[in-house]
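Hi everyone,

Forwarding the result from last night's run.
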Amino acid sequence: MQLFIISFILIALAFAGIAIKIWGKKDGKFAGTCASQNPFLNKEGEACSYCGKLPDEIGDCSNTEKAG
């Protein structure tokens, strides 16, 4: 039971932290969410599967510029 309470509190804190971050950001948007922008995650230099941008094209990841 004690483990359940500790787990519930930790999950609640995580949700509260995310909610505060969304509330504090302009328009509730997270900046830089493309994994292709991270050189540690994209070592091959592949384009983003969501927006189609390459790692050297730093900017917002929006689906409006999706490569087809």
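Residues 31-68 form one domain.

Cheers,
N.
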